[in-house]
Amino acid sequence: MAFKIYTKTGDKGETGLFGGARVPKNHIRVEAYGSVDELNAQIGLLRDVIETPHDKTILKSIQDRLFTIGANLASDPAKNMITPDLKKSDIELLENEIDTMEADLPALKNFILPGGHLTVSYCNIARTVCRRAERMVVALDFEQTVLPIIIEYLNRLSDYLFVLGRKVGQDLGVAEVIWNARK
Predict the structure, then answer these.
(1) What is the pTM of this model?
(2) DSSP letters of the chain?
């Protein structure tokens, strides 16, 4: 017997958390893990267009961690659910990648605008979706405690995506788009 993708249990505007609790589909918890899911899709798109095997591998690892975060956020906080864990080494990986990329980049002396190349733009779209997901998770944390490492990971991930955009642009020989303020 094939498993059906539709259950019809959400037809009245509610969804189930892992552990059985039902919440409205616009609940802050659903908004938080939905934003992380959207971020994961954006990272998948970026992984599809990025050229270097190393970056593809790192982005796949990030997708795995985002799925972990989504599982944690989608779990009923009233139950002691066992979910995959996020580790300090996951954050250290991002920091090491940032440090490695920045070692070959010119010092940042101006604000730069997203754009210049399609892949650079995808990095920046992923970065902004990451920032939104982080804001949603922080909002959830005001209502129900979220593991601090989740917020830390999302914060570091947005930094990684910004620097990745700069590195990709440099690798492609694309000049950064400098913000010119009116005077």
Answers:
(1) 0.91
(2) -PPPS--STTTTSEEEPBTS-EEETTSHHHHHHHHHHHHHHHHHHHHHH---HHHHHHHHHHHHHHHHHHHHHTB-TTS--------HHHHHHHHHHHHHHHHTSPP--S-EES-SSHHHHHHHHHHHHHHHHHHHHHHHHHHS---HHHHHHHHHHHHHHHHHHHHHHHHTTPPPEE-----
Structural domains present in the chain: 24-74+108-178 (1.20.1200.10)
Which pLDDT tens digit goes with each residue over 33-65? 999 999 999 999 999 999 999 999 999 999 999
Residue pointed to by tokens 């990095």: 123
